Amino acid sequence: MATADDLKFQEFDDAANLLAANPDATTISIDEPVEIPKNQHSRLQEPGREEDDELLGTDDSDKTELLAGQKKSAPFWTFEYYQTFFDVDTYQVLDRIKGSVFPVPGKNFVRLYIRSNPDLYGPFWICATLVFTIAVSGNLSNFFIHLGKPTYHYVPEFRKVSIAATTIYAYAWLVPLALWGFLMWRNSKVMNIVSYSFLEIVCVYGYSLFIYIPTAMLWIIPQKVVRWVLMVFSLCLSGSVLVMTFWPAVRDDNRRIAVATVATILLLHALLAVGCLAYFFDAPELEISAPIIPAHNTTTKV
Amino acid sequence: FPGLADVSISQDIPVEGEITVPVGSHSPDDDYSTLDEPVKDTIMRDLKAVGKKFVHVMYPRKSSALLRDWDLWGPLVLCVSLALMLQGGSADSKDDGGPQFAEVFVIIWFGAVVITLNSKLLGGTISFFQSLCVLGYCVMPLTVAMLVCRLVLLAGAGTVSFIIRLIVVGAMFAWSTLASTAFLADSQPPNRKALVVYPIFLFYFVISWMILTFTPQ
């Protein structure tokens, strides 16, 4: 039914959304063949696969691939090539951050938010913010923990900034590289429906680290229980974003490999969080510290 | 030009005259004059330009002088003086002290370059060195804050001095960020302004943190 709204020019995102929501709709687009045959094919699939359409938006995978091919047409030695990675507006970045903090069960972060427009702005600046947040919060928390002691002299601990920077940037770039290589290798052996480009994986990892920024700020609170609760909470949120992104990509593979991959992703993520907490934040000391009994002194008196 | 469509020049009207392009003040004598002038004049001219830019940062108005005639002398002087003033901090072990001279230098210059690249990649129309110039000159309020902090720390290092330092550094941080945003924000596409302003905020926050946590031995 061609209502007035249908005749108006609509953003491509809306059209893809409508298509993902209603796979049986007839669509005609100028730059690719009519999609009716594809929709018929999707109807012939098993009912269990329908969740894939929701999760993956496979109906618009053609469009997204075409769009991806059209975007990066500048040669890689020109400045315009790198500008295509920063083609995001403020509201898009905020939406992606929101999507990483409030993961909707069943929705794939890449398909829903990135939509073949991966950006490098988010990963780079979220990592930079995280580096400085962890360094500053760690320094503050150490200051408050040791505040009352007479022998304590405050130090800015600036060396830890470079350590934090190395760790977080290595995690945010090398782990996606390894994961991308692994997925490419498995793709050559098993035909997967879903495959992600390297930049999309970097994007997911970068935005999934955002939840650690407020967590690091709250880690200033010198209570062990509070810190561990916060860690588990943020780990669940960002881990679920990663799992929901990568599970469809490995699901078709050998069951053991799929589970091992997802487990490794979660393990590395947890390792990063635990490592940061352990290294940058001193352990809050107990309120009641039992006096150390100098047992060995009695023996030396003899 | 629709009005000229029906203009035709008849054959019997002589078209003659002189076509002279007015030559700008670019006679050969002028070229030699800046080479022949005393060195004092050259240096004073550059110093005046630098000083004018400092005044522009102190009272940020929308003027294009800072952008048009960029120079990096001011940022260099500010960076070196800030790095020097941050020396002499507490360093029980080498690992826990404040930033070294090289670290301050690298943070300021590398940070400014990254922010400039970021704003250009997001579609900004400002040139590379103009942006470096603005970011460098807007470090000046923070250098003033560092000077004030060192003076306050000479008097004592208690809670009162910390509160004074906190207020001063906070005010200068806000001043720096607002000044550089006033100069740089216009050159950005309107729907990406926040994306460009946030890294500037982070940059000056890190410098302010280094200044605030400076503790003398």
Order of helices and strands of chain A: HHHHHHHHHHHHHHH
SS strand fraction of chain A:
under 5%
Strand content of chain B: under 5%
What is the C-alpha radius of gyration of chain B, as a whole number of Å?
25 Å
**What oligomeric assembly is this protein in?**
heterodimer
Number of DSSP strands of chain B?
0
Number of alpha- plus pi-helical segments of chain B: 9
Q: Which percent range fits the helix content of chain A?
A: 55-70%
Question: pLDDT average of chain A, as an integer?
Answer: 76
Characterize the largest beta sheet of chain A: strand count, sense, and whether it forms a barrel: none
Distance between the termini of chain A: 101 Å
According to DSSP, the number of beta strands of chain A is: 0
* Annotation field: number of helices of chain A: 15
How are helices and strands ordered from N to C of chain B? HHHHHHHHH
Radius of gyration of chain A: 25 Å
Poorly predicted segments of chain B: none
Structure description:
Chain A is mainly alpha-helical and 302 residues long. Chain A has a domain of 190 residues. Chain A has 15 helices and no strands. Chain B is mainly α. Chain B has a domain of 138 residues. Helix content of chain B is 64%, strand content 0%. Chain B contains nine helices and no strands. Chain B is elongated, with a radius of gyration of 25 Å. Classes of the chains: A mainly alpha (302), B mainly alpha (217).
Write the topology of this structure.
The complex is a heterodimer of chains A (302) and B (217).
Chain A: H1 4-7, H2 12-21, H3 36-44, H4 50-56, H5 61-71, H6 79-83, H7 90-101, H8 109-114, H9 121-145, H10 159-189, H11 198-208, H12 212-218, H13 224-250, H14 255-280, H15 295-301
Chain B: H1 28-36, H2 39-58, H3 65-68, H4 73-85, H5 101-121, H6 128-137, H7 140-155, H8 159-184, H9 193-212
Helix pairs in contact in B: 4-5, 4-6, 4-7, 5-6, 5-9, 7-8, 7-9, 8-9
